Amino acid sequence: MFKILIPVDFTESATNACRYALHLGATLPQAEILLLHCFSDYLLQPELDDPLNDGGLGSLSPGSEIITDRVLHRNQLDEQEKLESLYQEMQAEARALGQHIHLKHAFLSGLPEDVIPDEINRFKPDLLLMGTKGEDNVARSLFGTITTKMVEDAKVPLLTVPEQYKEHSLSRVLYATDFDKTDAEALTALMHLLQPFNSEILCAHIGTEDSERDDSHKMEQLQARLYAALPDHNLQFAILPSEDDVADALQELVAREQIGLVAVNNHQRSLFSSIFKPSLSKKLVLEAQVPLLVFHSSEKV
């Protein structure tokens, strides 16, 4: 049973991520998908400004507490109804794709950055899948809060799906390497994850003309390690000298090779940090318009 955990916040990006997960599950023998909503109301936060509201009630006054409890209860019911509505909508789509997709939903109170890791430990998903926003919200969705924290903290592969990405093909996948010593481990995990999809995987390095000879030597070493560990693999390898930054070169490669997914290893610090600078990530995640898969190796580098 392949398990997918999807945090949802009832935005279009979350719904799009759910549909992407359903199409992934449709190609698997058995899939279990959990829609997780983390309920955290701002009314629970302490007052930071004027301790008296417009009605002259302090944050701890009995009248204020009664009003807050009523509003909080109404907000909680509204969120529960939204989750149930999303669940029913996705359940209907799941049934249309087959009886082997098992859909569940969970409504938990707490901050997402606290609840999601706890649910990962409990549910033990094979994949954490999160939708990302449009261009106006990319800084908040990728760098400001939850997705960035999950990139750092999640112990399972994390797949981010851009809101505008409506395709579901995994026939062509790009693994971006910076010749980290954990590449073989990450590529093995990638091939295992993509085995049901019969994907072609291109392992590519973006370098410079000055580093081309050294890059060729490192790529040969990586190929040798992979052939030793996985003699029957069907990986393709490429070195692309470029004077552009990493994101520009990668998105050109994505477009040229019709890539449907870009994968990186979170221990590739130089490549990873360059991709996740805000200006570069907009080019890679938004303009290329493809999902990004982040692995979390157990090896320290």
UniProtKB/TrEMBL annotation:
Domain UspA residues, every copy: 3-162, 172-296
One Pfam family recorded for the sequence: Usp
Family: Belongs to the universal stress protein A family.
Protein name stated in the entry: UspA domain-containing protein
